[in-house]
Input
Amino acid sequence: MKKKRIKQWMASKLDLPADVLLDVPRVTMIGQFECRLDQHLGIRQYHPDLLIVNTAYGLLAINGEGLEIVKISGTTMVIQGSIHSMAYTEERKPT
Output
């Protein structure tokens, strides 16, 4: 827990984005048709209308129509389709 607080402090003092030091997910939307997700921890469930992804903050559910994973590499994923909503469905427990 102390390590996390130190990283948060460093991110604020060095004026760095939190995802750089804290391993938190970064979600970038382009309209409602493309989503780039960085720092994911794997796919939990996939259907063309629902994608559930593991992240350091818990499960991220992406709802839509015709969802397709067009790129996956390391911890980066690009999803295309008609994206209706995104929400964390479960908070990850602190270790």
About this structure: The first strand starts at residue 26 and ends at 30.
